[in-house]
Each structure stands twice: as structure tokens, then as C-alpha cells.
Amino acid sequence: MAPLLTMHGIDKRFAGIPALRAAELVVEKGEVHALIGQNGAGKSTMIKILTGYYRKDAGEILFDGKPVEFSSPQEAQKAGISTIYQEINLVPYRSVTENICLGREKRRFGLLDWPAMHGEARALLARFNIAIDVRRPLMAYPTAVQQMVAIARAIGFDAKLVIMDEPTSSLDEREVQVLFDVIRQLKAAGVSVIFVSHKLDELYAVCDRVTIMRDGRTVQVAPMTSLSRLDLVTSMLGRELTQVLQAPHAADPSDADARTPVLQVRNLAAGRKVRDVSFEVRSGEIVGLAGLLGAGRTESVRAVYGADRPDSGTIAFAGRENAIAAPSDAIRAGMGFCSEDRKLEGIIPDMSVRENLTLALMPDLSRRGIVDETRSREIVDRFIKRLGIRCAGPEQRIRELSGGNQQKVLLARWLCMNPRLLILDEPTRGIDVGAKAEILSLIRELAGQGLGVLMISSELEEVVEAASRIFVLRDGHTAAELKGDAVTEQNVMAAMAHGNESLRETVHG
Amino acid sequence: MAETATTLPPAQRAPRLDMKTLLTRHGAWIALALLILVNLAITPNFATWQTLNVNLTQVCTIVIVGVGMTLVIATGGIDLSVGALMAIAGALAPLIFLGKLFPLPHPAVGIALAFTVPVLVTAALGWFNGWLVTRLRIQPIIATLVLFIAGRGIAQVFTNGNLQVFNLPSFQFIGLGRIAGIPFQAVLMVAIVAAAAWMLRRTVFGRQILAIGGNERAARLAGIPVTSVKQRVYLISGLLSGIAGLIVIARNSAADANLVGLGMELDAIAAVAVGGTLLTGGRATVLGTLVGALIIQLVRYTLLANGVPDAAALVAKAVIIVLAVWLQRQSHR
Amino acid sequence: MNTTSLKIFQGIGRYGVLLALLALIVFGWLRYENFLGAFNVLSVLRYNSMFALVALGMCFVIITGGIDLSVGSTAALGSVVAALLSPYGVLPGLLGGLAAGLAVGACNAFIITRLSILPFIATLATMLAASGCALLLAENQSVSVSYESGFTELGQGDLLGFPIPAWIVLLAYLAGSLILNLTSFGRTVLAIGGNEDAARLMGLPANRVKALVYLASGGLAGLAGVILAAQFGAGQPIEGVGWELFAIAAVVVGGTLLTGGVGSVGSTLAGVLLLGLIFNILNFENGLGWISLSAYWQSVIRGAFLLLVVAIQARLSMRTEEAA
């Protein structure tokens, strides 16, 4: 049987820099095909060429036996390729129905048939066990529902091929299972799926075959079952897995207990998501803040940092209570904060690496409002070397850097301030495995030098590896504090799921 | 000279400076140079003091207002109220030095107040724009639309729509005076451009403006006082509009609230756009705004001097704006 | 997001302007004799019909997240072309003005969708160009229309006791409302404004819809120009200055978000009438003789009114955000 999709010898350059070099991708009918690779390996470019968002420079694409070259996502959709993008790409102000049905509306007498469209939207969502009022604007619903709406939209097109680019990044465990059921339904119906994910567990759970990309090339195609995890990762990185991931804990917890806390948060309440949160961070330790999506982790640290206003509770930082009303106060007091959304809240894309790096330091770098360029250059050079930031030079625009290197610049933005506490919200999100390891080991090294680190990560493995103490949040409450030997994935999960009581059982029972 | 104030000197980025990058990056300068050359060739009496002065005075107020506009646009905003603020300053000054608002102890006091009060008033109104934008979080285009509509009305109400004619050389120095043969307004313009360009490149305030335009949320989280920076920027725009208003009435020896600064917001925005400032914010060049205004003015002058009607010059202006912005987009890709 | 506050926000956005309009009408009715008399009502409708047409186009443009600054000079161009063609009959004048408007709209569509230039700048340029063309065609003076052909009926005539321009507006708004709510084109307009990238990735023909929206805005402005010429008996190359901003104000007062994605045709009409009535009431107030406010006050009051509306909107949306 001929494959559903063959992409052969695909080349693509952006401003002269090759992004894809003779890349290959073959998807059979009715298979779930994993497409993996580090950031910048060319997965997204490959997908966007397939869906007509970009134009290829060379190569050929056969879809359903015919050569094709789509000039827009719309054409691809008409030919039977539906795509779910990594960031949720829907229209928040419009109703759920519109978000699902736009582009293939039902009509009666030439005008839109709203009742029929609402019915269809409801039916599609029912496949995900979701029953909501489809007339309300999409923004009225939580992220997970929005993600499901995106998936429902893609499936509703009766596609022959559904592309899912990291569809699980905002779903919880249970929702992921529902998604997998739907993928299996699709497969049973003869629909092919291209599944892009960084989470290896998911690949093994649902995929049949895998295509691994590296540096714009296809390096390996194999049945999922024939590859071990180590094979996958090695093949992706193209070198033996760095050992950093297995390095021992940097700080000795018993030692940390003796130190005074840098940050003490008591009964914090802020907005609707943070009800009663307490935690503390001592200097020289890495504290993890764990919890499911929507547990109030990001909201808590934003309140600590002064980015949002707390409703009640005390935040004591460096010995002063509730002295922080704005990020600038927090920075002056010695805090740094890397937001979870690097693009939206971290980098200033059009500015250079140097300007981005010294953004928070600027007031200290200036005399009477005039920036001291010489000193700024010295500092930037030092941090580029120290953190191993790979860039053409300090004057390169930050948007041209890879995700991992952008993140390093943002870390350096705070490190050059000599902070006492660094808050990292998902510091390794969207960063490839190699850079991830580098960043984690850097964080460890810094904690070893006396910096307090508060880290949020959705990857349990990562938090458990890095942190010597973990506070688990659940529905806006601190559900548990784990330290020492109690810091294990099982315990964290138990606390996330059941809160305090069950934890006592697992720890003491 | 790399006049874009945000980042990289181009040399470090691409070793080969081909024709296209040259055109897109320095297109405004090249266009200006070409225009001058063409005029030297075809326009009679082009290389004279007279011509220079005519063109400079035509362009002065646009540039002065354009500098404020550049800063506002650099933060990702826009200021539609500049023309109306010019009208307010233009209406206030004669009321003051003619003693219609309050009795004057001495004419000199009147002149001093006529220079300061209108400018302070427009600066305050500019700050009010900034307040609407930051505190009420109204989009800049709407927030400044309020004063665009109401501002000229206020000026007209002040003067009851009447033309105020005057002859007061000491006040009119700002529009008619000369320093070493160069019109004072041109000197003032150059000084303002230089100060603003330096400020944007070298000071914390300049960096903060560009950071806010580049990514406001990131700037806020990096501790930049977004609210106060924006308010100051709108204040500066208001202040410069006030100065421009004074220049216009001094030049005309008359203040007409119906006409002073009419359409100025669009002229200034056009100069900013042609000059190469990114309209979405984050990248700005004050020098470019000067060049942009000069290009627009020179094209108009060239056409008029060669017998093309003024209306056709409007069409040419439109083409320049589209062409310039389109070229910049090519380079920004 | 909190359901009730969202509903309140949307409710006020949708009905607030209607309530304000109603309040203003009741105020005028109670205070002035003849305020609701046939003459006053019809002349308000007649005079504001041009603004209503321009605002309708602007409403669609703003919903897509764009802006059209060229409508004022497009109307001027339309009035000149219509006046020049009026000797040949009603239809040539009407179609000529419309075609002139569509031509400017097509330029906008091309510059915005093909050259990817921001609507603000693109339409600023075409505003200058249209104004230049109008002046060139009219040779820098107003062009009187032919009174023999009956062209002026388009602006001054009545049909079934109702001004013809008001009929045109009524039809245009009915069509506009139908298109926005009951066609996929209309829903795509809303989706583009809500999130253009998303709409594109959803496979919606974003560029084509945007192009059509600017084309429509140009056409409506041209039509407004025809009415302008017919009403004043002359093509006016320098008329239309500031119309674009008046139209934007009307659309915003009508509760359409300038960020796009939310909007309503009906409340745009209410916004136009609201701003128009301010002038009308000012006239009546002066007629009472208690105070004597010059016509200049109307722009001050309009500005203050706009400020009031946007301040309330801002407050409400802030509250909605906080509830989220």
C-alpha cells in the first residue's frame, strides 16, 4: 500500500541559513507517526512547509498519491490535512462553536445555520467527554478546554492526516489519556496522525513509528518499539547523553535547614487561583514548586515578585515584610524572575543580546541617566563566556538565537544583578535536551554559591532531580512540603492528587 | 552611521553588504541624496540660501512635532492630538501677550509667560494623554483621539474662532529670527533632534522607551517603570507640539485656531514612517524622522518648482510613504 | 473568567450606547419643543446619513483589527466624481462616486494585504492620494452638480415620506448586520480581528476577507460622497477632513473594540446618531436663549463624550480582567 504522505529531499533556507537539508518524512495510512528532534532540528519548519505556511526551496511532497504544493493552510485543509499548533491558535473572543466550525460552516438558504453548527460542536466535544455551553466565548474556558477545542476543530474536518504539534503541553494526565483515546479512534478509522512531542512517555504510549530529525536532516526512521529511550535521545542529540542529568544534589538539605530563609511566604492569597499558599526559600537551596496546571504556582510567584497584587498574607523577603509592590521593588531588593513565557514576557526581540542582558541592570549601569557603555560591554562579555551563550556577538539580535540561548541570556539578565533569590518559572520549557541539561547544571552551580532558587516546572522528573525541597500546591493551597528522602516523584504526585492526608500515609505509613 | 538606535551595527551581522541591504537599510539617506542631486540638475536656483531657508522653515514644525511622535511611536503608541495641541498653544500665546487673559505688569513678563504657559499647558495635556493610556489603559489611538477632537474646539472656544493678529518682534523671534543667517527655528529644530537622538541612544530613558516598545510585558518584569516612562513620552510630545504651535503663529504674525497645526498629526506620522521608525514600536530613529520630513518636503518642492500642481504632490507623498514603509519591511524580514 | 462580569461587560458594550441614545432623546423631547417633530428628525437623519455610511465601513474595518483613515478624502473624491458625472443622469453619478470609492478601497486592500503594510500607514497614504486626486479632478474648487438630471434627489429627495439618504443607510445597515451575523464572511471578519494568525492557521481566507472589508469601506465612503454632492449641490474636494476620526469615534462609542474581534453594526448606528444629536441638542439649547454656546463647543462636548465612553469601557474591561 502506498504511503499517505511522502516528503522527499526537502530543502529550506531562511535568509541564507539552511533550516532543512534534504529532509524526509513518510507517513503510512492509519499510523500514528512520531516526529521528534531538538529545538531547531526542523520539525516545525517541516510541518509548516507541509501545511503551506512556508514554501519549500527544493524537494517534493506526495500526498495521497499525488504531488502537491499547498500555498496556504487553507488549501492543505481542503486536501485533508488538519493541524493543531503548539500554541493554541484560536480566537478567544469568539464562541466555541465558531472556533470549531469556522471554515466549514453549515448553511441554510445561503445563511449560517447556527443551531446545526452548535449541535456539531457539541457532538465533537462529546468525544472528549466535554459538555460545555458552546455559545460562550472561548476565553471563558480554561486552557485545557481550549486545547481540546483546538483538537476537536482539527478532527471535525474529516481529515486524512492530523498533525499534532505538542498537543499535550497544557493538558493534565487525565486529559492526555482522553486525547490518546481519540488518537486511537482516529487510527481505527484509518486516519494518520503526525505527533510531535518532547515527552518520551507519550511517544511510546501512542505512536507506531518515529522519524528523528537533527540539524535539518532526517537521521533515523524506525518502529517505535525497536528503539529504547536512550537510543531516541542519543539519536536526537547526536552524541552520548550528557551526564549532567544524573549529577548528585548540589546542596545538602540538612545544611540548608540551618540557614535563614531568604523568602518566607505565609498564607498568601491572590486573585482566584491562589487561596492559601505558604512556602520558604533559604539561601543556597533550590526549592521546587510543584502542582498541576492551574494549582496557582505561577500566580503565587508573580505575587511574590510584585507583578500581581496579593490580596492577603505576608511575603517576607530579605527580612522585610510586604515591601514589594512592583517588579522594580523586587529587583531592588535582590530578586530575579524568569517568566514561563520567554517570547511574551522575557525577551525584547528587536534588541541585541547586550541590551537584553543589561535591561534590569541599566539603572546601576548609568550615571545621571547616561548608560556606561564600556562597563556594560565588559559585563556582557563576561556572562556570555561564563554561561556559554552561543551567539554571533553581543550585538546580535536576541530573536535570532535558539530558545536555549535566549533562556541563558535571560538568566544572565538576573545573574549580573547578583540577586539573592532567583525565581524560575518553567526554565526549560521548549528547550532541547542538551540546553536543558546545561541550564539545570548552571542553576545547581549557582545555588552551590549561595543563591536561593525557587523553581516551577511541570516536568516532575526535573523538579525532583534539582530541588532539595518541594512545596506542592493544589487548588491554590499548599498541600505538602517534601524534603530530604521524601522528595520523590511518587510523593509529589500523591500530594498533587490527594493533598496532605494521603501524603502522611506515604511518608509515614 | 547606523542611525537606528536599538541595535547592531550592520557590519557585524552580514559580511557582504549587497545592493539590497544597502538600499533598505539606508534607503532614506540615499533617497534624500538623490533628491538633492536631481534638484541640482533640473531645478533652477536650487543651490541658494533662499531655497534652503524655504525648505528648512517648511519642515521645522513637522520635525519638531515628529521628534515627539517618534518617541511615542517607539513605545508602541501614537499621538493624534499633536495638531490640536499646537492650536491650543497658538491660541493661548497671543491671549497672554495681548493681555486678554489677565493684565500684564510689564510687556516683557507677557512675552516670558507667552513662551512658557502655552508650552506647559500642552505638556500637561500630553501628560493627560499618557495618563489615559497608562492608568485607564485606553489604546493610544483612542486616548489621543479625545484631545484631537476636543483640543481644537478648546482653542476655538478660547478665541471664539477669531483670527488674532499681532506684531511683536521679540515674541516672533522664535519663528522669524535668525542666528548667523540661519532661521532660529531651524537651529531650534537641529538642537531638539540632536538632543532626542542622543537621549534615545545613550540614556537609560531612551533604552527604556525602546524596551517598552519592543516588549512591554517583558520590560515591566525587568523592573522598568512602564507607566512613568510612557507618561513622560506623551508629555514630551505635548511639549514639543506646544513649541511648534508657537513657531507657527510667530511665523504667520497671526493665530488662527481653525488652522494652526491642522493635519499635523498625519504629516508627523508620515515623516516618522518614511524615516524608518518601526510603527509597531521598539525601533526608532530620530535622525530618520528628520530625513523623512526632508524627503517629503523636497519632493513637494521639486514638483512645485517644476510646475506640477500641489494636488499632484499629495499623490506623490502617498507613493513615497507606501514605498518607504514597504522597503523597510523588506529589510526587517 | 467570571461569567457574570463578562456578561455585564458585554451587556453594557452592547446596550449601553442604546440606553445613552434613548436618554438623550428623552432629554431633548422633554426639554425642547419640536425636538421630535418630523422636520427635526428627518433633517438629523438626512444630515447624518453620510457619517453613518462611512461609520459602517469603518465598523467592519475596525472589527478586523484594522483602521481606515482614507474614508474622509475618499468621500470627497466620490463627491467630485459624482458631481462631474451628474449631467449624464442619476445612475452615472451614483455609480461613478461608488466606483471612485471602490478604487480607493482597492488600493488600500492591495497595500495592506499584498505589501503587508500596517493599515494605519497604508490608509494614511491613500488618504493623501485620494485628496490629491479629488483636487486635481475638481481643479481646486467645488464642482456644482447638474440640477436637470434629478441627481440631487439622492440627497434631498424623499421616498414614502422618508429621506432617500436615510433609506440608503437603512438598507446598508440591514445588509451589514445580516452579513456580520449570518454569513461565513461576517464570522471570518470577527475571527480575523480576534486573532489574525489563528484565523490564518485555521485555514480562513484572511487576506481575501480583509481585502473585501477595505473595498467595502471605500465603496461606502464613495457612496457617502455621492450623497454629499447631492445634498449640497456640489462636489466638495476639501470636504471630509476629520470624517475618519469622527467615524472611529462613533464606532468606539458604539462599543466596538478597537483591538478588533468584537463589534456590532447596530450600535455603530446608535453611536453615529448619538454624536450627531449632540450637535442638534446644542442648536436647540442655543435656541432656548438661556445660554449661547458657539458651534465650537460641539467638538469639545464630543471629545468629552468620547472620553466618558472610553473611560467607562476601560473601567469595565479592567474589572473583567481582574475577575479573570
Q: What is the total number of structural domains of chain A? A: 2
**Overall radius of gyration of chain A:** 24 Å
- Structural class call of chain C reads mainly alpha
- How many strands in all of chain C? 4
What CATH architecture label of chain C applies? Orthogonal Bundle
Number of helices of chain A: 20
The top level CATH class name of chain C: Mainly Alpha
| CATH-assigned fold name of chain C | ABC transporter involved in vitamin B12 uptake, BtuC
Mean pLDDT rating of chain C: 84
Q: What composes the largest sheet of chain A?
A: 6 strands, mixed
The total of helices of chain C stands at 13
Per DSSP E runs of 2 or more residues, the count of β-strands of chain A stands at 24
- Main beta sheet of chain C: 2 strands, antiparallel
Shape of chain A: globular
How much helix, percentage-wise, in residues of chain C?
Answer: over 70%
Order of helices and strands of chain C: HHHHHEHEEHHHHEHHH
Task: Please identify the oligomeric state.
Answer: heterotrimer
- End-to-end Cα distance of chain A, whole Å, is 57 Å
DSSP strand (E) fraction of chain C? under 5%
CATH class of the largest domain in chain A: Alpha Beta
Provide a descriptive summary of the structure in words:
The complex is a heterotrimer of chains A (509), B (333) and C (324). By secondary structure, chain A is an alpha/beta fold. Helix content of chain A is 36%, strand content 25%. In chain A, helix 19 (489-498) packs antiparallel against helix 20. The relative contact order of chain A is 0.10. Mean pLDDT of chain A is 83; it is low at 240-254 and 501-509. Chain B has a two-stranded antiparallel sheet with strand order 1-4. Chain B has a domain at 59-261. Chain B contains 15 helices and 4 strands. The longest helix of chain B has 28 residues, at 107-134. Chain B is mostly helical and 333 residues long. With 324 residues, chain C is mainly alpha-helical. Chain C has a single domain, classed as ABC transporter involved in vitamin B12 uptake, BtuC. In chain C, helix 3 (71-85) packs antiparallel against helix 4 and helix 7 (164-182) crosses helix 8. Chains in contact: A-B, A-C, B-C.
